[in-house]
Amino acid sequence: MPTKPKTEFSVNQKIVYPSQGVGKITEIFKKEFNGEPVYYYKIYLEVSDMYVMVPVSKAQSLGIRATVSAKEAQHALDMISEEFEPPTSDWKLRYQMNLELLKKGTIEDIASIVRCLYHRSKVKELPILERKLYDNAKKLLEDEIAEAMGKDSKEVEAMLHAKLEPLGARIEKKTSVYDDDDDDDEFGDELDNSKESEDSDDSDDDMEDDD
Questions:
Q1: What's this model's pTM, rounded to 2 decimal places?
Q2: For residue 33, what pLDDT is reported?
């Protein structure tokens, strides 16, 4: 009789599923697959009000991790107002770079996306895809900081705004530069379709909706 494998996470533990948000392990269960036992995490994602099932063996490769400590959350918050190298004016490259950070999903990566795209939005209005990416990253960051610090989302949203305001003021004081970035919409559908296809593949392989 096979023994239950040692798992990194336990029932009722809060975790982060990259690009999906903060979740809670509600169950660790076994299913037979080709005659072999496969163990799964059942995760409840509050932001989307849904359950997903992830094989225990795939959790690490998917970037699923424990939520950060209050100290780590504060560090990510402080990152927002730090000086950094302005992002490239090539929005397609910028989008792909930030999408990769979103998939990695550390709290520092998410804070970097928020800082980068907020900075960019003060120079020029973001294309629709980047605006969606910014809103998603900002929500992910707010939710994890709220969980780590024991604060409500509105309070964390105000804390994040307080960090972004000085950054925006510094950017607006700088001289505007020419951007070769006028073809925002030309590649929007192409990237959107690519992301939808990629998300569909990930969904088929890594998670199932709870019936």
A1: 0.77
A2: 84
Q: What is the pLDDT of residues 156-198, one digit of tens each?
A: 999 999 999 876 666 655 534 444 444 454 444 444 444 444 4
SS (H, E, C) the chain: CCCCCCCCCCCCCEEEECCCEEEEEEEEEEEEECCEEEEEEEEEECCCCEEEEEEHHHCCCCCCEECCCHHHHHHHHHHCCCCCCCCCCCHHHHHHHHHHHHHHCCHHHHHHHHHHHHHHHHHCCCCHHHHHHHHHHHHHHHHHHHHHHCCCHHHHHHHHHHHHHHHHHHHHHCCCCCCCCCCCHHHHHHHHHHHHHHHHHHHHHHCCECC
| Confidence check: pLDDT of 93 > 80 | yes
Q: Report d(CA 71, CA 127) in Å as an integer.
A: 34
CA angle 194, 196, 202 (to 5 degrees): 105
Q: How many CB atoms lie within 10 A of CB 178?
A: 6
Specify the range with the lowest mean pLDDT, choosing from 15-24, 126-135, 140-149, 167-176.
167-176
